[in-house]
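## Example pair
The file below holds two records. Each record gives the amino-acid sequence first, followed by its structure token line.
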Amino acid sequence: MQDILKYNLLFDALERGFALFSQSSCGQEASAGFIDQPVRTCVTIPSKGFFGCMPVYIEAEDLLVSKLVTAFPKNKDIPSHNAIVAVFDASCGVPRALLDGDIITTRRTAAASAVATKHLVNGEPKVLAILGCGVQGTSHYDALTAMFQLEKSGSARSNVRVDDG
């Protein structure tokens, strides 16, 4: 999955998707179609974690997609977050794919942050500091350095790559 989800492709897809979603959310008729993405639904598992469901209908692709995710913060020897992404053909309801949601979430979250940074930053950023760790810290470093030519970057945690430029 990592070989397929290249950041440069994700940047373009997310920018198009965010624009389409914004148009759909504002009630505007989007030229590329309609997106229906309700707020996620969560089921609490007392003292353990939660199970979340995040569905979306994408008219332009004729797809129904849902991410199913669990978060069990007390997990020690296994990941605290686990996910799958189920893809259905919206024309007939037939399942088309069951994908590793962990890799998709990691890459998509970091790519979304890079796209947001592109649109919100004043000029071209030169310095990156990551105040975080683990998978998300590393993936954000990868995405942001793929989008921007940084002069200096670093992290507050040792398990995230540091490049002092």
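Second record, same layout:
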Amino acid sequence: MPLYENDQPQLDNNIPVEVPQLRHRRRRHKYGSGKPIKDWLPFRELFLNEIIRLEGLGDVAKLPLCGDCGVEVGDLRCTDCMLGTRFCTSCVVSAHQKLLFHRLQRWNGSFHEKCTLYQAGLRIQLGHDGHTCPKPVLKTSPMTIIDVSGVHDVHVNFCACGIVGASHHTTQLLRASLWPATVHRPQSAITIRTLKLFHVLNLQSKLNVYNFWCTLRTGHAHVPSGIESTKQGGFAVQCPLCPQPGMNMPDGWEDAPEDER
């Protein structure tokens, strides 16, 4: 041991000293926030073409057979299910017995148009966790149900057998995670998960009921010349109050005196 701080210990040259090996750390490549976007830019035409491809029939010229039964023509598809399987009417109802609020599309020969499980004939049985009831009450008019996926018209069968101990319609709706709009003869309801979603959005982003209900989406696609022809600012929404020739300006405005323009 050295007596003072500046004293150095005497090493015996005959004793081997192990020198620790320093590991060279591999440098991590740091990318800026714009690097992934730059990598994606050459592929944007590919992305857009594949998205547009989903709007049609893909690689086939005519409708294929149902992906479930393989007998009937599969003119229906579900936009909420993965893999894009096409169904006939009876098979799509069978496959969505517990997927009540999925949205369908039907091929009309030129494009896919909106279709609903209500139009396909799906019925919801309350009071038995989706199973059959020995004494169902078939509701003649559809019930309006609000879900995170949209507003749906639904065929509803209430339970009247008394086996499950929930004879009141309000109780049957609540047990199906549906919040009725009224307690007497409810004609509409909202799913519990939709209420929870609004609660979170209201607390975190101060979203009000009106904006939650009237959420709108806009897009820009299906340009024959491709995405490369979209000019800078092409996604901007034009102001309806600003003068736009050919839209909200009279013909011959360019011939008017300078002080009247």
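Notes on the second record: Helices lie at 35-40, 44-53, 89-95, 117-120, 169-175, 192-205, 209-213. Strands lie at 76-78, 86-87, 104-107, 112-115, 123-125, 136-138, 143-147, 150-159, 178-180, 188-191.
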